[in-house]
Each structure stands twice: as C-alpha cells, then as structure tokens.
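Whiteboard transcription, Tuesday session. T.W. wrote the structure tokens on the left side:
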C-alpha cells in the first residue's frame, strides 16, 4: 500500500510539473512566432528583436541560478506558481502596450513602433526573462526529491518533454492565430497564452507537495538502497543539513566540480543550436527556405512536439538502460548527430528533406538538453540539485549573446548562411567538450559522507 501510494504521488508530481512547466513556455516562446508579424506591423528589425532575445536570455540564465539557490531552501511549489502568475501578467501588459500610445507616444503616424514602444516591449521581455527563471529550479529540485537516482534520467527526460510540449503547442497556437486573424493581430500571441498560463497557477500551488517526507515517505536514496521505512516507523532523512553544510556541498559538488564545468561549457554550445532553431526558425524557414508562415510554424511545432519529445524520451531510456545512468555519454552521441543533421538541413535543396533534417536535429538536440539537467542533479545530489541546475542555466542562456543579437546581426548583414555555419560549428565544438566527461561516474551520492565529515 505504501509503495502504491508513493508511486501515485511520484507520478502525480511528474505530470503536474510537466503541465505546469509547459505553461511557462506558453508565456515565454510566444515571442518567437510573433517576430515576423512584429517586424511587419511594428517595423522592428531582426537586430532589435535579437537584442530582446539576448538580454532576456542572459537575465533568464542568471535568474535560474539565483532561483536555484532559493529553490533548495524554500517551498518549490510556491516559487513555481508565483513565477507563472507574474509571467502571465507581463505578457498581458505587452499585449495591451500599443493602447498606451496616447499617453507615451509609442506609435508614429504610420502606426509603426517608436523608440518608446521598442524599449517598453524590450524592457518587459527582460523582466519576463527573470521571472521565467523561477520555473526550472523548483521542477528539478522536486524531481530530485521525488524520483530515485536510478530512475532520474528516464523520468526527468519525460518531464523535460514539457519544454517541447509547451514550445510546440504555443508555436502552433500562435501560427493559427496569425493565419486566421493576420499579422495585425500579433498581440493575440501574448493575450491567449497568458490566459492559458493563469489556469496553471492554482494547479501547481494546490496539487504538489514539496517532498516525500510531507506525506511520511522515505527519502529517494533509501528507496534506491532498498531501505524504505517499515509501516509505522517515522520517516528518516539520510542527512539533515544546516546552512553551512548546504554551502559546503554546493562548493564541493557544484562550483568545485570539474564535471559541472564541462556540462556548463558544452551546454553553452548546445543551446546556441537550440535557440537558432526555436527563436529564428519561423524567420529562416520563411525567408531562406521560402515557406509560408503557417507552414513554418507547423514545422517548428513538429520539431518540438515530435522530434524534441521523442529525442528526450529515447535519450532518457538509453541512459538508464544502455549507458548505466551515465547521461553524459548519451549527451555526447546525441550532440554529434544534432550538428550533422543541422548541416544536412542547411545544405538540403528539398523542402521535404529540409523538414526531416530539422526535425532530426531537434530530436538529437533535445536529448542532451533534457539529460544535462539530470546529469547536473546526479553530480550535485538532491541537496544541491537546484543550485547546480541554476549554475548550468547561466551558461545555457549566456548563449543568447550569440544566438540572439549576434545571429540577428549576421542574418541582417550577411544572410542566413552565416548563421547556419556558425551554429553548426558551435554544435560540433559542444560535442567534443562533452566527450571530456566520458569516464565520469553516474552520480556523487557516495561523496556526501566524506564531504560532511571533512567539515568536522
């Protein structure tokens, strides 16, 4: 009965985290599909929009780090619910920002954006970048508390499908809105996703528990060791850590861990390729490959909903069943093939083959994108999982310095070919760096006792 009850709560947690984080993407990646319409209707340039994406990404990365530290110490479900609510509010303000024209002079005589509207939308998107950083840390921390280490790669990869689920659905939704209402309805790409996201706030707040101990279950380490508590005995935690011990573990297993640094640098390169497809995909499919906007949106949606989700699930399964929980090995193989598929997309002259190659690139990109968080959690243990994933997030989203403003400027001045060759090179370099971690152990739980005893 205890095992059945625990499994119910474990899967309840995973499913609610999937739905909740998918809703985060509804109020985060909606800008990407709205970009062509905002270019046409507001007169914004790729360089300006690239600046929005870059600053948003950098702020998001640092926010994930700060909120990762917070998530290891406070109620994860409250942090996650608050972030989703605030992000929805920001999107609603962006939706109605042109209505402030009479007060702030945001539109010129032709209805195009003035510098004031450009800065207003950009500033709001920067704020949204910080708020969005309140999403991943609570999720990975909750997963590290609820999922046994021996199953974390598979189940965190399953949760990670929420990235593609949310991104794919919002791309399809916004593509539908623009196709049926025209580019002049670009603001619907912010209004409708925001209203959907607000539904998720009470679901997160009232549907989740922060740890198994709240319901009287053993810790995940005990379960993996076959030491789950007997009925009627009090729940037992392997370690009760004070603030000093948390800092010590973070220093040893995060900041001083060479494997975490390899993950960070490799993911910097990985996320450049990922953002190139997700942030600029609708633009280069319409402008370079000659696709119609709804077809381009459907292609990006397919990359997320089919390629991405399948890639995550296959990578998670392969890690636990083939590579003995060593997700970094799976990451290396997938990253190498992701770069090769992207090169195939770039060089293809067939629309059908281009779509296949782009979906293939997404399949291989989202495997390591999902696993890197699980690998970081394993290397940092559940005690510092939020901190490790937050630190990883800084490097992941510093990549927008390249994929955002730099690639936007490259596309404006040298064409999409310059963007494609740059993204492919970063992908190959990332794979090579990940290979340096090939011999790393699956996790660091056996180091905890030595780290804590060294404090004494």
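and on the right, the sequence the group agreed on:
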């Amino acid at each position: 009965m205890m095992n059945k009850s625990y499994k119910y709560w474990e899967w309840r947690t995973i499913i609610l985290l999937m739905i909740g984080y998918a809703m985060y993407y509804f109020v985060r990646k909606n800008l990407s599909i709205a970009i062509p319409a905002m270019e046409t209707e507001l007169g914004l340039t790729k360089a300006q929009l690239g600046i929005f994406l870059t600053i948003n990404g950098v702020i998001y990365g640092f926010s994930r780090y700060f909120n990762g530290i917070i998530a290891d110490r406070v109620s994860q479900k409250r942090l996650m619910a608050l972030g989703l609510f605030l992000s929805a509010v920001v999107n609603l303000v962006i939706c109605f920002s042109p209505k402030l024209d009479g007060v702030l002079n945001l539109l010129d005589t032709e209805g195009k954006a003035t510098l004031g509207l450009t800065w207003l939308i950009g500033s709001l998107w920067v704020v949204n970048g910080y708020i969005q950083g309140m999403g991943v840390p609570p999720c990975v921390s909750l997963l590290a508390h609820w999922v046994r280490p021996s199953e974390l790669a598979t189940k965190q990869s399953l949760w990670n499908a929420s990235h593609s689920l949310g991104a794919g659905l919002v791309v399809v939704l916004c593509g539908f809105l623009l196709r049926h209402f025209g580019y002049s309805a670009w603001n619907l790409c912010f209004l409708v996703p925001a209203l959907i996201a607000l539904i998720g706030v009470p679901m997160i707040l009232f549907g989740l528990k922060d740890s198994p101990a709240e319901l009287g279950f053993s810790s995940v380490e005990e379960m993996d060791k076959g030491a789950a508590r007997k009925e009627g005995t009090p729940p037992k935690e392997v370690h009760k850590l004070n603030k000093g011990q948390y800092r010590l573990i973070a220093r040893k297993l995060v900041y001083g861990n060479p494997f975490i640094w390899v993950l960070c640098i490799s993911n910097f390169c990985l996320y450049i390729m990922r953002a190139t497809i997700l942030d600029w995909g609708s633009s280069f499919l319409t402008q370079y490959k000659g696709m119609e906007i709804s077809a381009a949106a459907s292609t990006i949606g397919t990359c997320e909903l089919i390629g991405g989700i399948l890639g995550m699930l296959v990578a998670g399964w392969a890690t636990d069943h083939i590579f003995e929980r060593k997700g970094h090995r799976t990451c290396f193989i997938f990253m190498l093939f992701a770069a090769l598929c992207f090169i195939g997309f770039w060089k293809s002259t067939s629309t059908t083959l281009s779509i296949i190659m782009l979906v293939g690139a997404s399949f291989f990109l989202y495997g390591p994108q999902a696993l890197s968080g699980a690998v970081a959690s394993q290397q940092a243990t559940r005690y510092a999982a939020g901190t490790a994933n937050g630190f990883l997030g800084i490097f992941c989203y510093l990549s927008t310095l390249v994929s955002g403003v730099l690639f936007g400027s490259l596309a404006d001045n040298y064409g999409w070919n310059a963007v494609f060759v740059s993204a492919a090179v970063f992908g190959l370099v990332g794979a090579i760096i990940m290979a340096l971690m090939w011999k790393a152990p699956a996790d660091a739980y056996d180091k905890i006792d030595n780290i804590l005893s060294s404090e004494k």
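Someone added at the bottom: Residues 2-455 form a domain with the Growth Hormone; Chain: A; fold (CATH 1.20.1250.20).
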